[in-house]
GST N-terminal domain-containing protein (Protea cynaroides), 233 residues
Amino acid sequence: MAVAIQETLPTPLGSTSSPPSLFDGTTRLYTNYQCPYAQRVWITRNAKGLQDKIELVPIDLQDRPVWYKEKVYPPNKVPALEHNNKIIGESLDLIKYVDSNFEGPVLLPNDPEKREYGEELLSYTDTFNKSVYTSIKDANAEDGAPFDYLENAFSKFGDGPFFLGEFSQVDIAYAPFVERFQLLLLDVKKYDITIGRPKLVAWIEEMDKIEAYKHTKRDPQLLVATLKRHLFG
Ligand SMILES: N[C@@H](CCC(=O)N[C@@H](CS)C(=O)NCC(=O)O)C(=O)O
């Protein structure tokens, strides 16, 4: 039985907050608790047991401190990782970076065929997200195709419930988005992604047992409200 993660989450930094003492050797994950991209890196950190090695620095995106863009990460987005006097961005790159540059369990199978398929699934995530966002905004759009893609992906090696037979970077990349899309599609279009997709259901159930992920989940109502504001203004 996995041990529950005990961690008091720091308060988000806003426009009146001072920056941390940058480049002092501390490894920091600049994040936002509602952001699915940042959540990917947060899950990776937790799954590798790096809570004491990578400090969370939450940023209030509605009231962003100017020093964040000026001194930390000019693209002004989260996530960003401060490590070895560098700042690195982009969530998919960061999942891989944290997995290969820190201690803890390796979040990829050894099997080269599975690794290759993992790359394919990781590179599909942006297309997946765009397709779902587009269908949510269009009342007449067909919503199922991206989820059928996932359902088929679970059958590839026949050793579910995870994409590559064991919990990996791929599960981490999809979970924050599937979690939100499930809620949003039900709310906005009364479309239930779980109907007729038993493998997706089993994956969602299994993911919900992973402490590293569970700890990063936020109030569903808050997520839906944030996403609706983002999508519909
Ligand atoms: N491609 C980036 C996307 C990151 C992203 O869009 N983050 C959002 C929050 S969920 C953000 O920082 N938005 C602020 C902005 O765009 O100004 C990644 O994968 O890390």
Observations:
- The pocket of glutathione is lined by residues 32, 35, 37, 61, 76-79, 90-91 (CB under 6 Å).
- The chain has a mean pLDDT of 96.
- The chain has two domains: 27-101, 112-232.
- The CA atoms of residues 119 and 170 lie 8 Å apart.
